[in-house]
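Researcher: Please predict.
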Amino acid sequence: MLAKVVAGWENEGVNTARVLLVVGCVVAVAACRTGTALRDLDGPLFGHAGTTRFIVDTDRPLEARELAQMARVIRVYKTLGPAEVAEIERRMRRVVDDLVAVELGTMRPAMNKEKAALEVVHHREIAAVQADPTRCARLEAKHAAALLRIESEAMEVARARVLKRLGHELALPLRMNDQRSVVAIGRVVGGAVRVTAKAYEVDVAAGKLSTGTNVVGLDGKQAKVVGNGE
């Protein structure tokens, strides 16, 4: 029946794109009726013609642009030694700290405005007790603590914003001599980064693993790529 409808539309000069749209809608409806959470793509994806299944552990709907920026772990590449883990943790921390510094820079104008307002109050208070060195010293200490608080709170906000965008699960591309596309997975815990003792091969070329790419692990959990393997 569908073939007759399509043929009839083509005879009436209907655009081929509209025909494809109808066929796509029918396929989509059929897929929805299966009731399964798996996404089956029956095409030559990832270099083979078998069915490809994605199982993604996420608590929110995924957008199309996120699917386009997704890599999948296909196997454990190797076990990392203690020195390698320490070096990868150092590099991940540096990347996160750099992103936090950039975010802090966007907050700097508002911070400077708040500091300027404190300076006005501080000078007024000092002027009122300038004959009393002890009280002046206390006010200076109070003012220094207030400036430090502004910086500290801004740093916390900047870090929270960066981790909200990236998530706490991070993936760092590793440069390999055999040209394999490999990542290490780490997690941000408080102010520290903890890296798993495994490196994983993924199905996307290393040169295409840009910051923000989602890497789906063997357990279905996602990590965001940070850095470029340098």
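Model: The chain has five helices and eight strands.
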